[in-house]
Amino acid sequence: MQVNDVELTISALSPAQYPDTQLGEIAFVGRSNVGKSSLINTLLQRNKMARTSSTPGKTQTLNFYLVNQALYFVDVPGFGYAKVSKKARAQFAAMIEEYLQTRQQLGGVVQLVDARHEPTELDISMYDYLRYYEVPVLVAGTKIDKVKKSQWNKSESSHRKGLGMQPGDEWVPFSALNKIGQDTVWQWIAEHATG
Ligand code: GTP
Ligand code: MG
């Protein structure tokens, strides 16, 4: 996908602030620090569009990026970041759930899970949640550059088993470092971002 044009339309906290448009949207969810903003930057071929950080909890709002005037990417705050207060975590969760449940324009979600680790409880509940609301999901196993190629299958099967993925459910290895998986993710997005 050739990305000619990207702009951050809005950082939203509530539905009233979501862009007033019928364009399709793809949201990116996953634990704090799993690599959401990095994956978005890779797909957008921009280094610093979505802000990344080695400190978890960088992204705190729903950030709507308009891509090629044709679709939106939504960078969602990472869940499960222990250092924010319980109240702030509950507010994040409510904000994310409100978006995922009510947004008509949402065509699919890319859920990021660290390829080096088994899914956590929070990864599992997010996946269950998306399946329950029948949101199409692509699981991306991130930071795959840190996993030996001989272990990729093991990483995939541990995610499939841990998340309870069904045979037709999709999993893709991804690296923001060497861009593994970017074409597959883009193809999935193009198929699902229908407003
Ligand atoms: P929050 O906004 O806090 O939820 O984090 P995030 O999920 O947006 O993560 P972010 O993209 O900021 O990346 C977190 C850290 O992981 C940064 O130090 C990145 O450089 C690193 N990282 C992200 N993707 C990759 C990857 O594919 N490979 C490697 N080796 N490191 C990565
Ligand atoms: Mg982020």
Account of the protein in words:
- By secondary structure, this protein is an alpha/beta fold.
- The protein has a single domain, classed as 3-Layer(aba) Sandwich (Rossmann fold).
- It is built from 5 helices and 7 strands; from the N terminus they run ββαββαβαβαβα.
- It has a 7-stranded mixed sheet with strand order 1-3-4-2-5-6-7, sandwiched between helices.
- Strand 5, helix 3 and strand 6 form a beta-alpha-beta unit.
- The chain is globular and about 45 Å long.
- The two termini are 18 Å apart.
- The protein binds guanosine-5'-triphosphate (GTP) and magnesium ion.
- Guanosine-5'-triphosphate binds next to helix 1.
What CATH architecture do you see? 3-Layer(aba) Sandwich
Count of separate structural domains: 1
Number of beta-strand segments = 7
Based on CA inertia axes, which overall geometry fits? Answer: globular
What is the CATH fold-level name?
Rossmann fold
User: Major sheet: order of its strands?
Assistant: 1-3-4-2-5-6-7
CATH superfamily: P-loop containing nucleotide triphosphate hydrolases
Mean pLDDT: 91
Bound molecules: guanosine-5'-triphosphate, magnesium ion
What is the H-and-E element order?
EEHEEHEHEHEH
Contiguous helical run count: 5
Tell me the structural class. alpha/beta
CATH class: Alpha Beta
Rg for CA atoms:
15 Å
Distance between the termini: 18 Å
Protein name: Probable GTP-binding protein EngB
Domain EngB-type G: 22-195
Cofactor: Mg(2+)
Family: Belongs to the TRAFAC class TrmE-Era-EngA-EngB-Septin-like GTPase superfamily. EngB GTPase family.
